[in-house]
Design a protein that fits this description.
heterodimer, A: 539 residues, 24 strands, 31% helix, B: mainly alpha, ABC transporter involved in vitamin B12 uptake, BtuC
């Protein structure tokens, strides 16, 4: 049986370019369906159309045998609920009030809240484990808690069909597991039909009964997780070869995208990158201390990854090293000189940072954006030189974006854009490169592409690279040195083999796990263990 | 050749950019933007010449040129040099100042909805100017007083919307609030003032280039000579500011100092324009968009192009208000009536990203 299906739908935004073309999909009742695919393949657009938020240009979305657009919104909302990606919360609304809003389709204007409403709200808060936080304001919550607050609102809507767009993005491994377990619980105990758009293929493998693989607005594979998430199919979907590892605990296959790096390649003997050190360094925003008394020595000419749960202070530490934040106490040194002293321009010739939240103004061409990296070497009366042009050309070559040089930045995909920002950083000709979560928003192929490039930049001349990474497996694969942080302090620092252990993952992330081996590089691979192991699916 | 250059650059193709070096000066020039500047400047000269022939007494172009080159009759000399030329020159310089001020503020806060007349900077200049007028002080200091008013307004808006960083939404809301406060203050001053002073202030506030004098021209010209080069120089920095605070800091820009410089130049432009011609609406909001739609992202060349477009709009509007209609209307009314529908039409048709 299927209550929700798409029949030959074609979807487009105002520019009339079809994002999804003549696509048909039936959502199996009572199952968990995951939609996966590369950035821009139309998966979130499809989810919006399934939830009646977009009118198809062609074809129909059918809910309970009737075209969804011929049914009143409120009637649809009693049966189907969509949690969008990154929803906007009104400022300082409490978790309970947010959850209460989910009851909207069941209420009418004049009717006071009923007992049924209250029961649904309590149940939603309990299921999401938000009872204790019910009076807290949403904007005070951590990323994982906030995601749970939104899911709680979706649950209060009490719909048999639940659509979630990227519920695990931004979350650390512990919070990801928490959300995935909640999805399973809702499916198994509440018998809800759940549709997920997921970024992370291993998350999809963990929870889905069915996986739908999309590429360029079309479905190119559909079936059980085992049938779809094969190395061959993944290469077809994402364009990157994958290896698989058997998770001994759940007997599932974990897919690891293969990178092009040559792990045998040694670090350059005379690296151009200097060391970075922190001495009793504290920093934060306003009066709030986020990083407390950190002592740290980042080795010169190597790749260092900073890992830790959401809100542990890893980005704050990186920003303090980059002089984007002033230390409250202590000193951050670059090559034994405090970064806080001297003109900003001088520091920008030695250190560059690729921070989150860069703005790409419309109409600016790629080359002009890369040219901004020359700013510290220029003056308003000497805005350009042949040397500038040469460095910009080299940066564009090194990042492989020559074919995009004259394109406006807004027409580029996420992965291409990230390479442009890296080229800008390269044009600064610094010995040190700091990167704040360079792979967020990117699909697996683009993640590998960006990290391979960073690795190449380090291995070619020995730039000191420090990056904040979310994915522990990627951190172990690419980094020579790992710094693990928790609650604003450094709890471990060393080689991946020394740092990434079952004990540390349990201490820092509060997740039980087994440590496997990366099939390509042999570096540690974290395989989270579930609290309740599930039966091995047949076939 | 030139027609191919003038067409919008083709997607993914190299724009006609050349590297130019003149002694210690070295910069990149977009030939297309340069060409657009040249063509619009020619159009402006032609329009100005036409404006000089129009009036209750029509002069042939030859007489106008004669008067300008010093070989005209006494009558022609009087009409052209004393009556018409100051007004044309003022209209021609007010437009660029408003347009450039708008371009700077829009770039600075990365928001297309901002212009000095919306976020209260003009209102701040007007409050100080009206205070100066109704207290009967010397009018030669009016531009300076208006500039101080504009800077005070800009700084209070900036401080009130500062919360570790500047959010564009917050800045616009604070600006609209300040606009209301300043306008209320201005109204209060006018109501309480002596009737003669008040009527002078009201006349000034209507926004007009009527009765412009050579001393107005001198003030505007001095301002343009000082501020246009600084504006063009600052566009080099603005291009970086637009990439976000984090990127600007990471390439080593002293962000606070650059912001302050941009605010001062933007305020200078709008305050002096307002002090001479009163508040003329829509130019500062609209012309920068128009310039970007035609010439591409903001930069030194596009700033100049926006200035010339502003001159064309204000001069053209003044000519329409003065000659084309049965009643004479202040220029501000025409800029709004002419510009706003055209702007809406462009937005509707081009579907541009703002």
């Amino acid at each position: 049986m299927t209550r929700l299906q798409a029949e030959n739908v074609t979807l487009a935004y105002s520019n009339n370019v079809a994002v999804v073309e003549e696509l048909s999909l039936a959502i199996a009742d009572g199952g968990v369906t995951s939609i996966i695919g590369p950035n821009g393949c139309g998966k979130s657009t499809l989810l919006r159309a399934l939830a009646r938020l977009m009118t198809p240009r062609g074809g129909t979305v059918i809910l309970d045998g009737e075209a969804i657009h011929s049914q009143p919104t409120k009637e649809v909302a009693k049966r189907l609920c969509l949690m969008p990606q990154q929803p906007d919360a009104p400022e300082s609304i409490t978790v309970e009030d947010l959850t209460r809003r989910g009851r909207y389709p069941h209420q009418s204007m004049l009717q006071p809240p009923t007992r049924k409403d209250q029961i649904a709200i309590e149940r939603a808060l309990t299921l999401t484990n938000m009872v204790e936080l019910r009076d807290r304001s949403v904007d005070e919550l951590s990323g994982g808690q906030r995601q749970r607050a939104w899911i709680s609102m979706a649950l209060a809507q009490d719909t048999p069909l639940l659509l979630l767009d990227e519920p695990t993005t931004y979350l650390d491994i512990a919070h990801q597991q928490e959300v995935l377990e909640l999805v399973e619980k809702l499916n198994q105990e509440d018998e809800r039909t759940i549709v997920l758009v997921l970024h992370d293929i291993n998350n999809a493998a963990q929870v889905s009964d069915r996986v739908v693989a999309m590429r360029a607005g079309k479905i190119i594979g559909e079936g059980s997780a085992r049938a779809v998430l094969t190395p061959e199919r993944l290469e077809e979907v994402f364009g990157v070869p994958c290896d698989t590892v058997l998770d001994p605990d759940s007997h599932r296959l974990i897919s690891i995208p293969r990178s092009r790096i040559d792990t045998a390649r040694k670090l350059p003997a005379n690296p151009i990158g200097p060391p970075l050190t922190a001495e009793k360094l504290s920093s934060g925003y306003g009066k709030q201390r986020i990083v407390t008394e950190v002592d740290l020595a980042v080795p010169k000419g190597q790749i260092t990854a900073i890992v830790g749960p959401n809100a542990c202070g890893k980005s704050t530490l990186l920003r303090t090293f980059a002089r984007l934040l002033a230390p409250m106490d202590g000193v951050a040194y670059l090559d034994e000189q405090p970064v806080q002293v001297g003109p900003h321009r001088d520091l920008a010739k030695r250190l560059t940072v690729l921070a989150q939240g860069a703005v790409s103004p419309a109409g600016v061409l790629v080359e002009d954006l890369v040219a901004v990296g020359r700013y510290p070497y220029q003056r308003w009366w000497r805005q350009w030189s042949d040397a500038d042009q040469q460095v910009v050309d080299e940066a564009i070559d090194a990042t492989g974006i020559d074919n995009l040089r004259w394109r406006p930045i807004e027409t580029l995909s996420g992965g291409q854009r990230q390479r442009v920002w890296l080229a800008l950083a390269l044009a600064q000709e610094t010995g040190t490169l700091l990167l704040d979560e360079p792979t967020t928003f990117l699909d697996i192929a683009h993640q590998i592409e960006v990290l391979d490039l960073v690795w190449e930049l380090n291995r070619s001349e020995g730039r000191t690279v420090v990056m904040v990474l979310h994915d522990l497996g990627q951190a172990s694969r690419y980094a020579d040195f790992i710094v693990a942080m928790k609650d604003g302090r450094v709890v471990a620092a060393g080689t991946p083999e020394e740092v990434i252990t079952e004990r540390l993952v349990a201490d820092v992330f509060s997740v039980r796990s087994k440590i496997g081996r990366d099939p390509q590089t042999g570096s540690p691979l974290v395989l989270p263990t579930r609290n309740q192991p599930v039966a091995v699916p047949a076939g | 050749m030139s027609s191919r250059l003038l067409a919008s650059p083709e997607f993914g193709k190299r724009p006609p950019v050349r590297f130019v070096q003149l002694g210690r000066l070295a910069f990149r020039v977009n030939i297309r933007v340069l060409l657009l500047i040249g063509i619009s400047a020619l159009a402006l000269v032609a329009l100005a010449a036409w404006a000089l022939t129009l009036g209750s007494f029509r002069l042939p172009l030859a007489d106008v040129l004669g008067a300008l080159t010093g070989s005209g009759t006494d009558d022609a000399n009087f009409i052209v040099l004393d009556l018409r030329l100051p007004r044309v020159l003022v209209a021609l310089m007010i437009g660029p100042m408003l347009a450039m001020s708008g371009a700077i503020f829009q770039g600075l806060v990365r928001n297309p909805l901002v212009s000095p007349d919306i976020i209260g900077i003009n209102a701040g200049a007007a409050l100080f100017a009206v205070f100066w007028i109704v207290t009967g002080r010397s009018l030669q200091w009016l531009p300076i007083v208006a500039f101080i008013g504009a800077v005070v307004a800009a700084m209070s808006i900036y401080i009130l919307s500062w919360q570790g960083n500047i959010s564009a939404a917050r800045l616009i809301l604070v600006g609209i609030g300040m606009n209301a406060v300043f306008s209320a203050g201005t109204s209060l001053l006018i109501i309480r003032a002596d009737i003669n002073d008040a009527s002078r202030a009201v006349l000034w506030q209507a926004g007009s280039v009527y009765a412009s004098t050579w001393s107005d021209v001198r003030v505007l010209l001095t301002t343009l000579i000082i501020l246009v080069p600084s504006g063009i120089g600052l566009m080099w920095a603005l291009r970086v500011v637009q990439l976000g605070d984090m990127t600007a800091r990471s390439v080593g820009m002293p962000l606070e100092r650059t912001r302050l410089a941009l605010i001062l130049v933007g305020c200078g432009f709008s305050a002096v324009a307002v002090s001479i011609a009163g508040p003329i609406g829509f130019v500062a909001l609209m012309i920068p968009h128009l310039a970007r739609m035609i010439a591409g992202p903001i930069g030194g060349g596009v700033l100049v192009f926006a200035g010339i477009l502003g001159a064309l709009l204000v001069l053209g509007s003044d000519m329409i208000g003065q000659h084309a209609l049965p009643v004479t209307l202040p220029v501000g009314v025409i800029t709004a009536a002419l510009g706003a529908p055209y702007f809406l039409f462009l937005l509707y048709r081009m579907n541009t990203q703002l």
